[in-house]
Amino acid sequence: MKFNELGILPELETALTKESITQPTQIQEIGMPAIMDGGDIFISSETGSGKTLAYLLPLISKLDIKSKNLQVVIITPTYELCSQIQDELVTLNQNSGLGFRSTMIIGSASTKRQLEKLKKKPHVIVGSAGRIFELIKMKKLKVHAVNSVVIDEADRMLFGNDLDVIKDILSAMLKERQLIYVSATNQPESNELIASLSPNLVNIHTKSNTLVDDIDHICFTASGNDKITFLRRIIKSCDPERGIVFTHKNETAILIAEKLRERKMSVGELHGECDKQTRVNTIKSFRNGKLQILVASDMVARGLDIKGVSHIFNIDPPSKSKDYLHRAGRTGRAGVHGYCISIVSGEEQKIVRRYERELDIKFSQAIITKDNTFILKDSNGRSYEEKNITFN
What class, spelled out in words, does domain 215-387 have in CATH? Predict the structure, then answer.
């Protein structure tokens, strides 16, 4: 199927061609016509499957560009994902020549500057739930003509305070607006909440709760004190074009970054201790290749799409399989092979077994010898490959 068969504007098809995107993915083929129809819809599919374009293309196609009214609101959990979606909107607008207006509304930015942006009458805003509702309460953000609301990373957003704020946002809008929920995972808890918000929901799931086949999952065993030493040796052997190291805690991320820099590696940090401008600069440097390694907490695991990330390194394995899915999903995208390498303690091996059961994936167990030979073993402990593995 071609994009022109899915009901989007021809100008958008031209814009996609300029990005070398000529063939819709499965979730785009199924999801885009359903969004064009205007009903509430839940889209879930594996990471890297093109969910963002699956909702942006039909929503842009339905905009009344001559109007000065806000028509689409996209709610995201992180600054990084918000910025990424806004970048895609800007690219589509520039390459299509349609002339629609979009802006980013995020809690960590200057309210005064955002109010200036709203004076340009955007058709689409993308931002955090808290700041969006704050501006609605101030009567600075008028949502009376909004006809579509996207809740991206819905399995994370529809809980706790975020859920309360989202309900407040929706209560300020027309009841007949379209709700679009987006996620890489399909969880019973969030499904119940979505069903309560949208009784006539259309569910479109293609390989949600799964990872693409283009990822090798490899596990090294090391005690806590040796993990960073192992990490340095593995990165030196892999020499990835771009790699992301995931940790649980900010202080661990800071320590790892320091240890890697001691070995003359180009490293950036992305965690809760970083201010907004540092995060912006770090992502930019990582995207353009000035940084080889990004050491990050889980806040960037969801939705972040950076081309050329060939390796993911887990220094702390997440306790939930769905969080491993989001981490690993940063690689193996757009047909490029990826590696997700976890360094776990003996006690943490049971978490790896859970990933295998719940995500239907297989890990290769690996050890490093004194001469830097990597030995891979199968799940029964039998060696089936012995060589200097470079993972690239």
Answer: alpha beta
